[in-house]
Amino acid sequence: xxxxKIGVIGGGASGMMAAIAAAGKGSSVxxxxxxxxxxxxxxxxxxxxxxxxxxxxxxxxYYGASKEWIASCLKQFDxxxxxxxFEDAGLLIKERNGYLYPKAEQxxxxxxxxxxxxxxxxxxxxxxxxxxxxxKALKGGFDVCAGQECFHFDKVxxxxxxxxxxxxxxxxxxxxLAKDLGHTIVPVVPAxxxxxxxxxxxxxxxxxxxxxxxxxxxxxxxxxxxRIIERGELQLTDYGISGIPVFQLSRQMNYLIxxxxxxxxVEVAINLLPEYTDQDFKAFCDKRKFLxxxxxxxxxxxxxxxxxxxxxxxxxxxxxxxxxxxxADEAKLAKVFALCRDWRxxxxxxxxxxxxxxxxxxxxxxQVGCNMESLLVPGLYFAGEILDVDGRCGxxxxxxxxxxxxxxxxxxxxx
Length: 415
Description:
This protein is α+β, with helices and mostly antiparallel strands. Helix content is 30%, strand content 24%. Helix 1 runs parallel beside helix 4 (107-120) and helix 1 (13-24) runs parallel beside helix 11. The chain has 11 helices and 21 strands. It folds into 2 domains: 5-186 and 362-413, 3-Layer(bba) Sandwich (FAD/NAD(P)-binding domain); 194-350, no CATH class. The protein starts with a strand and ends with a helix.
């Protein structure tokens, strides 16, 4: 039987995985990458250590597509399959609190492992080749055009990535290719990214880190906005907020901002003493009253949180730090305590795609089967970030790359 000719557009994690899966099924595979090398973005994942996946895999860790669609995909290639694939390819893997990393703690060894596998399977890799168009050919299959060069394939897998981290080659061009073939693109926004805030006084506390619960208060114009709650280490910057809990919130905040006319309503609330219940915190405040004698306002609040934060809250409450606490306004003292557990910041947006780890939005999965084949264009498949699927921090996005890439490659290779 004549070999199936498959073109994979995009040499990122999902594209390489799709090429490996298709070639492993006996197809003739050509991997086309617009940049100078494959897997460039993979090198920066997990702060260079490459968080391969997570033992606590669940559809609930993903956004965009329906949970049912995600679940049906993850069942086909789960965390155990990821471990098996890499170990069979010679990569040692270790687990830390459910997170999977290469034993060497180097993303480079993951990329090397995949490149070796591509070579072993005879995948033809073409770099510095920017695809301009993908068209259905009159005699069947697809014509893929890249400048003056054209290719013909029986089937095509679009694994072009998103707009996140454009310096690694993700420029969003895949969305146009998909749209030109009739697919709907769900609006794209940066995700897993820092948030920018209106408050200029944040410069005074830039660099401070603190354990916190961050949430989007219920309310807004519709009066029914659900709370989105995250907990972890908050990092304060001169322009806004960062850290894992902020990254987890960022996709929802960007969509919320996109939908609001009045940005003054888009805010987050920060609880810097999340270990206290309301009752416990009231008891804490009452007990602290015994420290009032002979202390200044600054001295009275010393020891609760980072000094820079407490001085900022004293200032926001309208108090002077060097006055005796015994003569200070009770309402203003109460406000300082309140700010420790309900500090509101107005979010104006996020950092750009340059800083985003992934994007939310992409090709509408309602137009894609669970085998990653287009429901509109037979023979066209999708893999990775180009789809409207994005996961939380913790290896879930790379797991999606391995999963969707394997499914797309295996499905495309089937006659």
